[in-house]
Backbone:
């Protein structure tokens, strides 16, 4: 059985000691701003969590589009080799996000 991430859309909010990230009426993550962890860094991390589902969807769409262009022969030579290398990076990032 494969476990998937909490469906979006995600939100984030400033709390007294950090930043909450959630979906719907559920809080799914909390970024604390204590010790050496600055409020600005915490806010940036919360925004990254907030954007993660959209970034994953964009990477999946880009991977599919780039593979399609290669299959159609729209890219050749150096361009195709560059795109294949980027597809590998995209695929690795998707696998990492999905815990594969």
Residues:
């Amino acid at each position: 059985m494969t476990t998937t991430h909490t469906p979006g859309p995600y939100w984030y909010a400033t709390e007294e000691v950090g930043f909450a990230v959630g979906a719907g009426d559920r809080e799914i993550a909390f970024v604390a701003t204590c010790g050496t962890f600055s409020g600005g860094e915490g806010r940036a991390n919360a925004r990254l969590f907030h954007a993660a589902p959209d970034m994953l969807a964009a990477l999946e769409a880009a991977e599919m589009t780039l593979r399609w262009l290669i299959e159609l022969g729209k890219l050749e030579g150096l361009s195709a080799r560059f795109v294949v290398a980027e597809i590998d990076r995209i695929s690795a990032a998707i696998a990492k996000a999905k815990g594969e």
About this structure: The beta strands are 10-15, 18-23, 26-32.
